[in-house]
């Protein structure tokens, strides 16, 4: 989708969104896994969003701070990816059609897969070093049991409950003995 579309609109039009709310969600997430989103998103079973208005509530503010720190770590990961894969540093491709968009998505996916492979091997290879050769054993993954899709209202209610569960777990983990966040 063009860059002028809001992130939420892009997500809701994506195959990821459709799979997250279908019988196929077990192919995307293991038990207890979810995506984190900013306050522009609506929380769901597999998407936990920051609170739109913390309203002076310390727990909500602390939870939003936790999410912000995760987002910063994500930005650092993107920087690490670009430092190894120089072809990602300045992608100067105008996406004029679906085929060009798919090509760029495939390119980024390949870089991410190779990054993960090299991290797994504890290898400091970079794109400018030339080709590498290795064999990788495949892992067999057992799919999680199927769960029926929820209607929109039930999905929103479930998402709010899920966010509160994640908030509680996050704050319990991040707080130290004095009751303040460990990273402040």
TrEMBL record:
This protein's UniProt keywords: Metal-binding
Entries under InterPro entries matching the protein: HARBI1_dom
Occurrences of domain DDE Tnp4 (ranges): 1-116
A GO MF label: metal ion binding
Cofactor requirements of the protein: a divalent metal cation
Pfam families reported for this sequence: DDE_Tnp_4 (PF13359)
The protein's name in its UniProt record: DDE Tnp4 domain-containing protein
Organism: Riccia fluitans
